[in-house]
Amino acid sequence: MNTYLEVIRLMFEKTMSKIFNAIVFTFLFLSCAYSQIDDPRSKKIIDDMTAKFKTYPSVSLNFSITVENRQDGSETEQEGGIWVKSNKYKLEVPDLVIYFDGSKVYQYMPHVNEVNVTKPAPDEDDEDFQLLNPQTYFTLSSKSFKSNFLKESTRNGRAVYEIDLYPIHLNATKYSRIRMMVEKSTLQLVYIKAFMKNGIHYVLSFKPYSIHQTALHDSFFVFNRLEYPNVEVIDLTF
């Protein structure tokens, strides 16, 4: 099964229940006992990473996603690309391209020539949308997480800080913990591992960012139906 399609299928349990069945790739938060963890060093690293990312006109990067299923011992991996500008993004993997133009989400599946259109809730309570949005990972909010600095280490030859994130509101989430690695010299996100309560782990590994000094045009983040004259459009925004 296509790894990323499985991830997206799970992620859209609520808003895309006609297409996908359960939610995946979610931030894991531990119980209230962890809610007091928020050491100054990890908080500063996250704040600095977020502030720096917001200065980029637009960014593109390649990544790999690995699904570790502790239930059956299986492991699958897939590669993709992300482009981000302000609150807009485009995410591309084999058999799936997702556009967010700042208002609507377009999920184009070329193998069936179909695009699904949804509109996220206008606030941060739309958990499914927030978990799919790359901005969730590159611009973390201290309102959602408590953090704990673990150690300095290396990842694929890059010197990194290792940090664990925990949820403030356990009952409002479907996970328990997230581990992240931030490169020391660039403050770029290198690695994320999300631990789900069902025993499945999701690992994202990011290559160094390509920073566009001239921002990508807004049209880059819009699905252009004219380029796909026979595409089937399923509009769920009504």
Describe the structure.
The protein is mainly β and 238 residues long. It has a single domain (3-217), classed as Clam (outer membrane lipoprotein receptor (LolB), chain A). Helices cover 14% and strands 41% of the residues. It has 4 helices and 13 strands. It has helices spanning 3-11, 40-53, 127-132, 135-138, and strands at 58-69, 74-85, 88-93, 96-100, 105-109, 114-118, 145-155, 158-167, 175-183, 189-196, 200-206, 210-212, 232-235. Strands 1, 2, 3, 4, 5, 6, 7, 8, 9, 10, 11, 12 and 13 form a 13-stranded mixed sheet that branches. 34% of the residues are buried. The model is unreliable at 1-36 and 126-131 (pLDDT under 50).
First-last Cα distance: 31 Å
CATH topology: outer membrane lipoprotein receptor (LolB), chain A
| Arithmetic mean of pLDDT | 77
What is the number of beta strands? 13
Over the alpha carbons, how many angstroms does the gyration radius reach? Answer: 18 Å
Q: Sheet with the most strands?
A: 13 strands, mixed
- According to CATH, the homologous superfamily is Lipoprotein localisation LolA/LolB/LppX
Enumerate the spans where pLDDT stays under 50 for 5 or more consecutive residues. Answer: 1-36, 126-131
